[in-house]
Design brief:
With 159 residues, this protein is of the alpha/beta class. The protein contains six helices and five strands; from the N terminus they run αβαβαβαβαβα.
């Protein structure tokens, strides 16, 4: 059975080559990206994703992190937003509302990883993917969270 909803990136070429040639000249038209990730012990992936998005010329990007990180990196990472965290430092179930609210104005959502192996965060991710219908890119350990669940990702999305 062929999984048409997965796209594996070749390290030698861009994942979506046609986007390179379609860059808008005005930053206001360059798109809005929501980057979600991190936990109390790891948060490099969302930060790196944000830096790369800015370098690539994204119109605007926001990073959504668990609020346990707010005191640690809240003042260093511009455009950071924070959602409720659980005792383990991952996203709490109550964070789903923020995931949905911040994804609404975004053109795409990048689940950047460093989510950890927290079951409550995995539930938030699964619930988000069931509700959100926009373009989503899942990377790093977030893929593990999705692959271990019974979640069936839609196959009718363009890739």
């Amino acid at each position: 059975m062929e999984n048409t909803f997965w796209v594996k990136q070749d390290p030698k070429k861009p994942l979506f080559e046609d986007l390179i040639w379609n860059k808008p000249e005005n930053k206001l038209h360059a798109g809005k990206l929501l980057i979600i990730g991190g936990n109390a012990h790891e948060f490099a992936a969302p930060g790196q994703a944000y830096d790369e998005a800015v370098k690539a010329g994204i119109g605007s990007a926001k990073v959504l992190l668990p609020n346990v990180l707010q005191k640690t990196i809240g003042q260093f990472l511009e455009n950071a937003e924070f959602a409720p965290s659980n005792k383990s430092g991952g996203f709490a179930r109550a964070a789903l509302a923020e995931w949905i609210a911040f994804s609404d104005p975004a053109d795409a959502v990048l689940i950047a990883g460093d989510l950890g192996r927290n079951s409550e965060t995995a539930i938030v991710l699964e619930s988000f993917l069931e509700k959100y219908t926009g373009q989503t890119v899942i990377t790093k350990d977030a893929i593990d969270s999705v692959s271990y669940t019974h979640l069936t990702l839609p196959t009718n999305r363009e890739v």
